[in-house]
Amino acid sequence: MEELNILNLLIILVAAWLGGSISKKLGYPAILGELVIGIILGPALVGLLETSEMLSVLAEVGIILLMVHIGIEINFRDLGKASWPGLLAAAGGFIVPFGLGYYTIIYFGGTDMAALFVAIAVGVTSLATKSRILVDLKLLNTRIAYVLMAGALISDTLALIIFAGIISFVDAGNIDTVGLLWVAGKAILFFIFTAVAGIYLLPLLGKYLAKLGTKSRTLHFTLILIIVFGFAELAELAGLHSILGAFMAGLFIRDGVFNRQISKEINEVFHDISIGFLAPIFFVTAGFNVTLDVFQTDLNMLIAVTVVAMAGKILGTALFYLPSGYGWREGIAVGTGMNGRGAVEIIIAGIGLQMGIITAEIFSILVFMAIFTTLSVPVLLTWTTNWLKKRGELVHQQSRSGYIILGANPLGLYLAKHLNSEGKVTVIDANKDFIQAAKQAGIKYVYGNVLKEETMEEAEAMEKGTFIGLTANSEINLLAAQLANDSFYMPEKIVLMAPSETGADVESLDRIDASSMFANKIMLGPWIYKVTSGDFEEKSETASEEISTREWIKTHKSENDSILPLLIINAEGVKRPFHYHETIHPEEKIVYLQ
Amino acid sequence: MEELNILNLLIILVAAWLGGSISKKLGYPAILGELVIGIILGPALVGLLETSEMLSVLAEVGIILLMVHIGIEINFRDLGKASWPGLLAAAGGFIVPFGLGYYTIIYFGGTDMAALFVAIAVGVTSLATKSRILVDLKLLNTRIAYVLMAGALISDTLALIIFAGIISFVDAGNIDTVGLLWVAGKAILFFIFTAVAGIYLLPLLGKYLAKLGTKSRTLHFTLILIIVFGFAELAELAGLHSILGAFMAGLFIRDGVFNRQISKEINEVFHDISIGFLAPIFFVTAGFNVTLDVFQTDLNMLIAVTVVAMAGKILGTALFYLPSGYGWREGIAVGTGMNGRGAVEIIIAGIGLQMGIITAEIFSILVFMAIFTTLSVPVLLTWTTNWLKKRGELVHQQSRSGYIILGANPLGLYLAKHLNSEGKVTVIDANKDFIQAAKQAGIKYVYGNVLKEETMEEAEAMEKGTFIGLTANSEINLLAAQLANDSFYMPEKIVLMAPSETGADVESLDRIDASSMFANKIMLGPWIYKVTSGDFEEKSETASEEISTREWIKTHKSENDSILPLLIINAEGVKRPFHYHETIHPEEKIVYLQ
């Protein structure tokens, strides 16, 4: 038992945290700051830190756990839905820089294998900070954002498959056809076996654990780690790298295998350990292997690789994007968005260095290339999207649509009938009479307890865009909205808040980014009575100027108890619910009950 | 970057999981199985596995994180409340075996330092599996259980402080008085500094993070790790061992420092990583260092140490327990319960071996001693408690008492008045009128949202024994009961279940081990009306035979709508609520409303 060098570990953790925080504050991913601080504190510059056996053990365990997390985050369902343009962007953004990168290294006299490693490294895509940058640039809900997300997902998977193909031949060297077939066969066997195990055996384990009735997260975590290291060992046996096994294991750890809550918590634990503890050790120590000499000795190659990476990625994406029919300008914008490099690239470069396939110089060039391309993303993406905006070519897109309305009471049904003309509405209730009424009205319905995930699943919460909680019980509305948010990632949550004295409050609304239905606290009972007895009139009013729903409520303050604003109808006749976070544009109609 | 030996790691994880599971199935702590499987697979027997640099790095990080977890689990509040008998038991159970252990090693010709290490190892106490064994033997709520819990808590802390004292002198050797003072001074400075930092600086960090508004668990985790390794490094600088720093850091990570939810989740993450992943690596590899030769070469010493450990612990506890006035037989029972050794002992023995203070033989003896003493606990504890039971000396004790009644509606208040004569009752409501009524009735009240922890805290939920949810809304009752369970560990949760159609169900009750008030689904409204209008009679019935509350309800089936069983009164006049998980004994009275 060796003494741990606690001080070294402490300094690295502090450095990683500082570097990562500063980087995030500037709008860049944490990994950028971790690499830079590693270069600064490592042998390249200050020389305060150097690598050690302890650090590399922790770093390697860190990247294995990180690959699991990356795998978990890639949702097959999302991959399946990845649009045709996303696929085009991912393919072009990979193939073109891959080819250019390969020939660049060959041109500079590198080996075949080194050229292939560099080719993957320049081909990989990492969204700078996933959705963060899209939020900053207010791009969520644009078509570009959806293409980028899909593209990045496909890109990681593609890169790792090609990496697997290359690495399986690394040790092969000069062998005959039979040998080559065996090498390829082993790699293919690995993917088939892990896929089959992931699809059939893991769910069996999940069912067994469910039957045991154990909800011990620690036991799940232990067993999942055993699967992860088991897959990693299989990858090694197949002549591949352990990270591929970890990635494959991550792909299959999801809802349906274990219960949704456990899967989610396990992913959070992998996130905490990898991103919050061990993986930064890998990225900081990756900086230790960087030499600044390349700026003198290999400046040409550094410039060539960086230019090839950027130009290849942006132009390759734009080129392959043409068949989508969305225009080359949008292709350029997508390309600039996909121009970042991240964890997967640094991990692959590190493996190349460790296996002696690439030199310390090429490794350094790849790290700097990652830094430069990632730095470019926000700048270039801002330019290109502004350019599209000015030309009026920034297309908005809603990928999820339709409503889930909780509460098939008369008012809920009334609203459902209105919105049903626009899209898919499903009502949920646990009251059989209400459900019967929904059936008669021809509205899709689910009978059940909304606080159970199965019920929400049956209502296809994963595809729906908006959740409306409209029972008389604010707490139930809010809890269901939380479920819609936390487990089904529903983008819009609107809940009826009763002017009650217990439970639900504005803070809870904010936490899940939900909005208050009717933009006002409402007693449901009287309105249900009015709707049931027909003792009301539906009226409408056209807005003359832009006004928020809150202001509209204020201007009708005197009638607050006697009117209920239900919908906003735009010029095209599209209806949307009236709630707190809405703005009424000029010429839009407000439909209210009186 | 060295290649990880994934296969080794995989085998150890599987072995640890198997060993731990089997051990737990047999009613023993996981660590026992981990040690045994390490001995079996290690060089001592099969020779399949051996230690490596990778394993020791992971194992050491594992015990640091485990010490954090142990520290977090020791609640100062609990320590403060640790009863006088608990303190006596801990002291006697430590001092006597400590002294005997020391002289045993000196007798066998060991060094002073080795003797001190063995002394701590035999002095340490670990409850075999904390509450698990007490549950199995149905001892929860007995006085013995409370003494054991308190004793074990104090014992860990005591052992680590004495370990700190000893280890600070290890490197000192033959030095003069000034040198000795400096050594002692550094150790004391460490404790003062970490205590001050823990009490004053950590809460500042917590407040800063709260002000930032970040709820990122990963960021909290990273910063806490930095604190942990910071304290660990300080311990090293003070001439102590890093685990003491980790333990001190753990002591101060709690509610009040960070928000309750985050603190709880962080502890769970430490639990998952240490107990579910890294610490078992330490315990399995500890088995690698064991040699079976001691059964031949040092059998006398092995027997002597084991006998001294067991006899010293049991008799020492019983002896020091005498002043409690609870009798020597209860002292013996407590001693048998405290006779296990666990994580802390193996960690200390491992450190002794690593530092060259104890030989591989003594280390092996300490491991076997841990195994034997731990094996003895359930057997001996069953004997001694049965013995007490037969003599009628097994004293039951409720450490938490009093009620929190959610819902100060007329029925809630009616129940509160009944129970208030027996102990502390606090009612919670968000309705001002109800609260006003509680005030007039002289019942303690808290006005606020019960789903907020602050409200429960104000109602002193940590001290109360029973939570009763009595609002008309089953979901609110259930959610509040969950909060009472999860955040305040309230032993009894009783909730009113309305015959509603949404939300709450029996499964949720079971998960938190809650019971249904009135042992029946009840519409609250009519009863509130009856109580308010005085339109009811309070009647009582005396049970002639033992009958469960469910059966009682069945026998009164025809009147189910017209009667409401409220309380059970025993022969001494002590009242308790009528709920699903209750049994009515002969001669007990059932009070019901009609």
From TrEMBL, chains A, B:
InterPro entries: Cation/H_exchanger_TM (IPR006153), Na+/solute_symporter_sf (IPR038770), NAD(P)-bd_dom_sf (IPR036291), RCK_N (IPR003148)
Cellular localization per UniProt: Membrane
RCK N-terminal domain ranges (all copies): 403-501
Domain Cation/H+ exchanger transmembrane per the UniProt entry, residue ranges: 13-385
Recorded topology in the membrane: Multi-pass membrane protein
GO cellular component, as recorded: membrane
Keywords: Antiport, Ion transport, Membrane, Sodium, Sodium transport, Transmembrane, Transmembrane helix, Transport
Molecular function GO labels: antiporter activity
GO biological process, one term: proton transmembrane transport
Transmembrane segments: 6-23, 30-49, 55-74, 86-108, 114-133, 145-167, 179-202, 223-253, 273-292, 299-322, 362-383
Keyword Transcription regulation assigned: no
Protein name: Kef-type K+ transport system, membrane component KefB
